[in-house]
Specification:
By secondary structure, the chain is mainly α. Helices cover about 55% and strands about 10% of the residues. The mean pLDDT is about 90.
Length: about 90
């Protein structure tokens, strides 16, 4: 309710999203489970290059983006900071 997303809130939401996408319950996400996606971004997150995303790989990427996006170092992401992260990740940085 403070208008910011902190790392714990991000992790909770990421875990729920990961579980919902992991249709086969394998603990990994395949390109098929993700549906339409950016292959370059997938490859960036797939640190070991095995063609599957683990929760650890996803969270490593999310924490990196969180840290980069928290421009005012207040430990949370505002809406504007989240927009900036998406812009950076999609190559649309302003």
């Amino acid at each position: 309710g403070d208008g910011l997303i902190n790392e714990a809130e991000m992790t909770r939401d990421a875990a729920a999203g990961f579980a919902a996408l992991d249709k086969d319950g394998s603990g990994t996400l395949s390109p098929m489970e993700l549906g339409e996606h950016d292959p370059a971004l997938f490859a960036k997150v797939d640190a070991d290059g095995d063609g599957l995303l683990t929760f650890k790989e996803v969270m490593t990427n999310k924490v990196r983006a969180f840290d980069q996006g928290d421009r005012d170092d207040d430990g949370g992401l505002s809406f504007d900071e989240m927009v900036t992260i998406v812009d950076i990740e999609t190559g649309e940085a302003r």
